[in-house]
Amino acid sequence: MPPPRIVVYAMNRSFRVQCVALLRAAGAAVRVASRQAELAKALGEGTIAAIIVDDDRDAAVARVVTRVVVMQRAPGESIEEIVARALGPADTLADQPRSSE
């Protein structure tokens, strides 16, 4: 089974593109959806860890179609900050030296 993905669901193209670039740079499995049909297809393709959305409208749609964690961008929150939240604490451990180093 493929690893859990993070879905970026937003009508705002620049938000989607920036989120996807940051998530892929971090090595995350990513799926992009700009329409409800694409979101439904993404949900049917495998395990979803979280859905990142840009605004209230996108969040409302995502919450109706799934019980997956929907992470909505907070007012004033940068794209880098919401991507970091979606990646979770495991991403912060990657920068720590191993005990054998």
Biggest sheet, open or closed, and with what strands and sense? 4 strands, parallel
Rg for CA atoms = 14 Å
Tell me the span between the first and last alpha carbons.
Answer: 33 Å
Strand content: 15-25%
Instruction: Give the SSE order as H and E letters.
Output: EHEHEHEHH
User: How would you write the strand order of the largest sheet?
Assistant: 2-1-3-4
What is the typical, i.e. mean, pLDDT?
85
What structural class do the secondary elements suggest?
A: alpha/beta
Count of discrete alpha- or pi-helical segments spanning 4 or more residues: 5
- Principal-axis shape: globular
Point out poorly predicted stretches.
91-101
**Fraction of helical residues:** 40-55%
Number of E-state strands: 4
Search tags:
101 residues; alpha/beta; 4-stranded parallel beta sheet; 4 strands; globular; disordered C terminus
Plain-language structure description:
- There is one protein chain.
- 46% of the residues lie in helices and 18% in strands.
- With 101 residues, it is of the alpha/beta class.
- The protein has a 4-stranded parallel beta sheet, with helices on both faces.
- The protein starts with a strand and ends in an 8-residue tail after the last helix.
- It contains 5 helices and 4 strands.
- The protein has helices at residues 13-25, 36-44, 56-65, 79-87, 89-93, and strands at 5-9, 30-33, 48-53, 70-72.
- Helix 1 crosses helix 4 (79-87).
- The model is unreliable at 91-101 (pLDDT under 50).
- Strand 1, helix 1 (13-25) and strand 2 (30-33) form a beta-alpha-beta unit.
